[in-house]
Amino acid sequence: MSIKENIEAVREKIAEAAKAAGRDPSSITLVGASKMNDAAACREAIAAGIDALGENRVQEMTEKLAENAYDGAPLYFIGHLQRNKVKQVVGKVALIQSVGSDPLLDEIEKQAEKLGIVQDILLEVNVGGEEAKSGYEPAAVFAAALRAKGMAHVRLRGLMTVPPIETEVGQNLANFQKVYRLYVDINQKLYDNTFDILSMGMSGDYADAVRAGATMVRVGTAIFGHRAYPAAKQEGTV
Per the count of CB atoms within 10 A, which of 48, 154, 182, 203 is most buried? Predict the structure, then answer.
């Protein structure tokens, strides 16, 4: 199937999940996770109507920016971001989804201030408490949201999560529901219901994420096809 056909199939599945949850399918933003796909694939996805593209790696994103790969769609950074690479991302993307520590949050604020801009961000929630993953523990997210609220050069739009890899279909539904409750609580208590993004769900579980309240899903393999990962470096399916 072509990228266009894959996007249509994903949108159909999103629509089914949204309607089952009593939600409007048009309220769900579809992000194409374009890691390890070239500029031509990005352009094909944009031509097919993808809502946004998301990159995981700074170097790859920088190279594709130089090729004008993302022209016509918003670009989001969705991968682990190191503090020493913040200056390569702030101001280059519409949204940084993976802000998972106070030092990273502070560095983004510092760089955005230098550029005289306000950078939109999401706080990443390590809902599974996995040592190998970045992100705030659920119990620490409220304090991080309060910290972000006091900054002049970042705007917190909501939350993002990458749950543990499923060993059984539907296993992450409870994790998605947990992050949704956290999102609602912080939104009501700190942000006067101005949050508008809850980014969760990837190729294997985005329908469950939509059922649980996601407003944004990040889909790679189901749109672009399987990636050829280097040996011994395979990760969860985005």
Answer: 154
